[in-house]
Every structure is written in C-alpha cells, then in structure tokens.
Design brief:
This protein has five helices and three strands, in the order ααβααββα. The protein is mainly alpha-helical and 132 residues long. The chain has one domain. It has a three-stranded mixed sheet, with helices on one face. Helix 1 packs across helix 3. It is elongated, with a radius of gyration of 18 Å. InterPro entries: Njmu-R1. It holds the Pfam family Njmu-R1. This is C17orf75 isoform 5.
C-alpha cells in the first residue's frame, strides 16, 4: 500500500469511527428529548418554518439543527419543484417555532402538525424503543 492509499485509509477509518456519534446519536437524542412533541419539529422541518431554540445548551441546539436539516426535503427534490414549494409555503406567513428548553420537558410555541408528521413521529419513537 502506498503513502496516498494509507492516507486515504486513515481518513476513511477516522470518518467511519465517528459516524455513529456524529450522525445517528444526535437524531436519537432529539427523538428521546421530544418524544410525542417530535411531530412539531418534523412539521417545522418539512414546512421550512424557522425554529428558534431558547434556554438550551449548545449540544442540544446542534442536535436540533442537525435533525431539522436531515428531516427537511432540501437537496432531495429538484430546484424547480423546490422553488414552487417555497413560493407556496411563503404565501402563508410562518412565525418561527420557538422551543423553550428551560424545563425538563421542552415547550413549543407557534408549532403546527399534521397526520403525516404524527405518523412519522410514531415511527421515530418505535425505532428509538427498538434501539434503531
């Protein structure tokens, strides 16, 4: 194995060794923190509603932002479709969803939901209970 291949192997091993902690654990922590209220976070992500997190530590804020990023459709649909979707979404002015983390159970303000988000919230909770 030459020097370049060893460098690449080292980089890949480093990436893979931290992948679970960097990618899976933040989502799992958010699911466990919000439980049934996860439906509000899913709705915000899918409707491109801004989310403001108050009274939270930096790790929790990062976890929430990572969850919002992976739960949104951004990057998964074509630009033209995205433009149409964003125009449709902005016709109805969104207030920011505010998450107050000052108590043991986070409180939501200006949050919405729908049946789709409720069904997926349940899927996330079932996955968390099963350890997935």
């Amino acid at each position: 194995m030459n020097c370049e291949e060893r460098g690449l192997e080292s980089h890949i091993k480093s990436y893979l060794s931290s992948w679970f902690e960097d990618v899976v654990c933040p989502i799992q922590r958010v699911v466990l923190l919000f439980q049934e209220k996860l439906t509000f976070l899913l709705h915000a992500a899918l409707s491109y509603t801004p989310v403001e997190v108050k009274e939270s530590d930096e790790k929790t804020k990062r976890d929430i932002n990572r969850f919002l990023s992976v739960a949104s459709l951004q990057g998964l649909i074509h630009e033209g479709t995205m433009t149409s979707l964003c125009m449709a979404m902005t016709e109805e002015q969104h207030k920011s969803v505010v998450i107050d983390c000052s108590s043991s159970q986070p409180q939501f303000c200006n949050a919405g939901s729908n049946r789709f988000c409720e069904d997926w919230m349940q899927a996330f909770l079932n996955g968390a209970e099963g350890g997935n």
